[in-house]
Each structure stands twice: as structure tokens, then as C-alpha cells.
Amino acid sequence: NGNPDRPKADSAEGALQAARNFLQAPKIDDPAINGGFLREDAKLHVIMVSDEVDQSEGPVNLYIDFFKNIKGFRNDALIAVSAIAVPESGCTMSDGTSLSGDARYETVVTEMNGRFQPNCESDWTTMMQNLGLDSLGLQIEFYLTRAADAATLEVCVRQTGASDPTCSTV
Question: Helix (H, G, I), strand (E, B), or coil: what is residue 159?
């Protein structure tokens, strides 16, 4: 459905639904479509860019729950959702065009450890740099599949430049 005030616009934009469609079965499992894209141990960073309010069907919590479940329980560090979109308060483009916003993108970004930038800002350099750094971040927590046996627990630390680590029993 076209927006008569913006003839080149698609007024039915829904980046949340588009991301969900891409990341759910059957597409995510089909080798001919998206199969192999989602890797268990790799960080997933969804980045949405839009100049319209989100018109995805369903409440925002539907998408937050979906994204949180992609990587599984206690794997919050392996997924982030970011957006360059119209803020809830709306904004004005450099050409004077006023854009209406809503809270959907900002809410999902806040809940999903992402970054948000109003798309009316003409310089996205810092946002792009930060998104790149975020996507390359190292995993800092590793969860055990069972309780550790204290009798066999050993901690090793390797000093920069040292060939062998220093180990001690805990």
C-alpha cells in the first residue's frame, strides 16, 4: 500500500517481521534459502534500517521473545538487535521532510542489547563503527553443561609472550 504523501515509499514496512521470516523455519533450515546462516556458536546481530514506523503484525513482545529464543537460554551475549530508524518522537530529515515514529524499534533494541540511531541524522559513521565492533566482540562467558568437579578443576593463565601457561588447582 503506497503512502500518497510519499509516492516512492512503502508505507507497510515491517523490519521486525522481515527479520523473523528470515530467521525461522522453514527458511532458516533450507540449504537453498538460509540454511547454514545461523551458526550455534556465532553471534547474531540483526540490523534494521527504516524510514517508516514498524508495521509488523503482532505486539513487540512477540519479536523480543522470538529473538531471545534464537540463541537459547543464557546466551544473551550471542544476539543483538539494532536499528537505524525513526525515533518514537519522530524527526525531521535534512530536506525538511517530517517523519512520524513509534516506540517499536527502540523497545526491541533496548531489550536485545542493541544500538539505536535516529535515521534523520545524516552522519551514521559512529553508529557503523560501533556496530562493526559489537559484531566482532568476543564471547566472555561460557556456561558448563553440568556442575564442575572441584577435585579436577584447574585454572591456567598464559602471560603475554610466555610459551607455557601457569596452572594451579583450585
Answer: coil
